[in-house]
């Protein structure tokens, strides 16, 4: 796996479950590659932020 494939999977895992083979390949790559490890952390943070935003919207008492 190269960095392009790794970042693509890191993005896709937000939208679909990865196969076991993809997860293993991604883990092997991120274990060796700091850039993709950081990218994965950023993707997770972005997802957490957007989740919090959606929850805040749902809890808005004005709606
Ligand atoms: Zn990489």
From TrEMBL:
It comes from the Bacteria. It holds the Pfam family zf-HC2. InterPro entries: Znf_put. Residues 3-37 form the Putative zinc-finger domain. This is Putative zinc-finger domain-containing protein. It comes from Vibrio quintilis.
